[in-house]
Amino acid sequence: MPPRTSIEEFRELLKSSNRVLALCGAGLSAASGLPTFRGAGGLWRNHEPTSLATPTAFKRDPALVWLFYAWRRHMALKANPNRGHYALAELAKKKDDFLCLTQNVDGLSPRAGHPEAKLKLLHGSILDNKCFNDNCDYIDRNNLSDPVCPALAPAAEDYPPGQTIPLLDPYVPAPSIKVEDLLHCPQCKTGLLRPGVVWFNEPLDKQMLADIDNWILQGPIDIMLVVGTAAVVFPAAGYTQQAIDQGAIVAVVNPDPESGEGLIDEDFFFQGDASELLPKLFEGVIGKMDEHGKIL
Ligand code: OAD
């Protein structure tokens, strides 16, 4: 039997639920104009985005990795939270025992007013800068400068719609940036600063993981919401199974029909855009939302 698709049935379930866990991914921010990692977003210049998101890539070419992140950062700062972010933030305010785990580093959930205690930034924040030196713990949180430093100005330039952005054109040589002009650590004075995101081959924050495990193990979970994620990166992708083990009914929100594979008949699959679907799905708890994300 395929999973359920009835919005009404989901609303009833959500109203009567106490413990709700959400796992979000890049698809949540798609309607804000930010590219996802896999699929449509494609290559950045001629690089696979995931090949730039590693400590090895940063060691090899810190200027190239910074250009990539400075551009993503510029996009994130220019973007606005969408109705999906606002709906989740509102649900967090209404449900005492709701926890949202996001893989997104774009800062849009915090900017939508999602209560901090109910939001775990699994992969860090692109607005934080931290020292690349293993033995230095310097971190500059929520740095909103754009460009992040003068040398990275080419990644923060806007062009008229329709015009190819030179930085994104692999046939236009990348701006040459000297390593000494990148941000350096004011604490240890030796390390380069790097984006405060989790890269491949890096562990997630231990305390955060322990806090999430504690929350999960506190008791049965009623609903596991899986929003806009390909759910292929671990440990994030593993939380769905952990919630199922705690009794959760899974509800997937994603335009890709393949993301509903593996769901059983008591689960839900809502095929479509998270910014449209989440306000509808949560309406019984958060009320009606206008097109700007305000509750009416
Ligand atoms: P992906 O790019 O892998 O997947 C995005 C998902 O969003 C896909 O399943 C799309 O079908 C779905 N999607 C697209 N548009 C959507 C919309 N409007 N509404 C809802 N869903 C939509 O992104 P993530 O799963 O977030 O990690 O990727 C996980 C991690 O892989 C990222 O955090 C990043 C990356 O490498 C690190 O950098 C460590």
UniProtKB/TrEMBL annotation:
Lineage: Eukaryota, Fungi, Dikarya, Ascomycota, Pezizomycotina
Protein name: Deacetylase sirtuin-type domain-containing protein
UniProt GO molecular function: histone deacetylase activity, NAD-dependent; metal ion binding; NAD+ binding; protein-malonyllysine demalonylase activity; protein-succinyllysine desuccinylase activity
Sequence ranges assigned to domain Deacetylase sirtuin-type in this UniProt record: 1-295
Organism of this sequence: Daldinia eschscholtzii
Annotated PROSITE patterns: SIRTUIN (PS50305)
Family that this chain belongs to: Belongs to the sirtuin family. Class I subfamily.
GO cellular component, one term: nucleus
Binding site for Zn(2+): C131, C136, C185, C188
Active site: H123
The entry's keywords: Metal-binding, NAD, Transferase, Zinc
